[in-house]
Specification:
The structure holds two protein chains of two kinds. Chain A is mainly β. Chain A is 0% helix and 55% strand. In chain A, the strands form two sheets. In chain A, strands 2, 4, 5, 6, 9, 10 and 11 form a seven-stranded mixed β-sheet that branches. Chain A has a four-stranded antiparallel β-sheet with strand order 1-3-8-7, with no helix packed on it. The chains are: A mainly beta, B mainly beta.
Chain lengths: 113, 112
């Protein structure tokens, strides 16, 4: 069964609005979760590492004010795309490590009109 | 040279065929090797996980790691149309998930 749950799976929003995506680890605690972005026919691009109880670590080139990450509990991380624009339209995926294995959520397709 | 290279395909095979998917890598420090299956607009699903060299089998799937050649493979026996997806290899040197390197993925189509 699913180890990591991600919601929503699909969201359409107007330009200028903010969108929140949730990522939950099921039946285990994840002090660290990861957020990726994936463009069509391309591989995963790590955006940021979400750390429970502290600030997220962003990869080079990722705007931390645009992509707000909150990891308020050991089972929940959220990614908020603020003031979304059409260029933010993409597939966003979260993941969490359990033991030595990395598990992914089901992904969120964001479309900004 | 990219850290991980993978033929993007697309690869098309008839149902029942044996499929061979491969990745090469340049970092000899990689110790953990994974294969993921990703259906369109879904998150990657962990198929196989291997530590260091050797073979691992799980049902119709076999993963092989040859560290001396820096080459990993995933074999799918008796391929089914439901195996049609993109297959991503991934690897890391330690259990540092922020350092996981993904291949670009190979698109596979199994034709009934």
């Amino acid at each position: 069964g699913a180890v990591v749950s991600q919601h929503p799976s699909w969201v359409i929003c107007k330009s200028g609005t903010s969108v929140k995506i949730e990522c939950r680890s099921l039946d285990f605690q994840a002090t660290t979760m990861f957020w990726y972005r994936q463009f069509p026919k391309q591989s995963l691009m790590l955006m940021a590492t979400s750390n429970e109880g502290s600030k997220a670590t962003y990869e080079q080139g990722v705007e931390k004010d645009k992509f707000l990450i909150n990891h308020a509990s050991l089972t929940l991380s959220t990614l908020t795309v603020t003031s979304a624009h059409p260029e933010d339209s993409s597939f966003y995926i979260c993941s969490a490590g359990r033991g030595e294995k990395l598990f992914f959520g089901s992904g969120t397709q964001l479309s900004v009109l | 040279q990219k850290e991980v290279e993978q033929d993007p395909g697309p690869l098309s095979v008839p149902e029942g065929a044996i499929v061979s998917l491969n990745c090469t890598y340049s970092n000899s420090a990689f110790q953990y090797f994974m294969w993921y299956r990703q259906y369109s607009r879904k998150g990657p699903e962990l198929l196989m996980y291997t530590y260091s060299s050797g073979n691992k089998e799980d049902g119709r799937f076999t993963a092989q790691v040859d560290k001396s050649s820096k080459y990993i493979s995933l074999f799918i026996r008796d391929s089914q149309p439901s195996d049609s997806a993109t297959y991503l290899c991934a690897m890391m040197s330690g259990a540092s998930y922020d350092k996981v390197i993904f291949g670009p993925g190979t698109s596979l189509s199994v034709i009934p």
